[in-house]
């Protein structure tokens, strides 16, 4: 992951950040215990947890209203669409 970012010219100090608006996903990334509802998931599917445990990634919570990925994954009403578009394209008024 670090080498990919460096190739793109985005070198950074410290762990990378993956902002998530799903508290359950954050809990799975940080908690190494097996939960009742996830016991069927094989270990190979926990790559994110392994990267978090190694200190190369942090997974903070981001409110859905501030999650820029919603622009690409959800149908947004007009005002929300334009607000997100402007934030993504770094448009200042």
List keywords for this structure.
mainly alpha; 93 residues; 4% strand; two-stranded parallel ribbon; 2 domains
> What is the count of DSSP helices, taking H or I runs of 4+ residues?
5
The helicity comes to: 25-40%
Order of helices and strands: HEHHEHH
As a whole number of angstroms, the C-alpha radius of gyration is: 16 Å
| Number of domains as seen in the coordinates | 2
The profile of the biggest β sheet is:
2 strands, parallel
Report the average pLDDT across residues: 82
Into which percentage range does the β-strand content fall? Answer: under 5%
Extended strand count: 2
Strand order of the largest sheet: 1-2
Please tell me what the overall shape is: flat
User: Unreliable runs, pLDDT <50, ≥5 residues?
Assistant: none
Class computed from helices, strands and strand pairing: mainly alpha
């Amino acid at each position: 992951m670090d080498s990919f970012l460096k190739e793109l010219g985005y070198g950074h100090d410290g762990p990378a950040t993956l902002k998530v608006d799903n508290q359950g996903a954050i809990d799975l990334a940080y908690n190494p215990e097996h939960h009742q509802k996830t016991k069927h998931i094989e270990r190979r599917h926990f790559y994110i947890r392994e990267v978090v445990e190694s200190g190369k990634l942090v997974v903070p919570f981001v409110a859905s209203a501030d999650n820029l990925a919603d622009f690409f994954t959800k149908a947004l009403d007009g005002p929300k669409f334009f607000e997100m578009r402007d934030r993504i394209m770094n448009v200042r008024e």
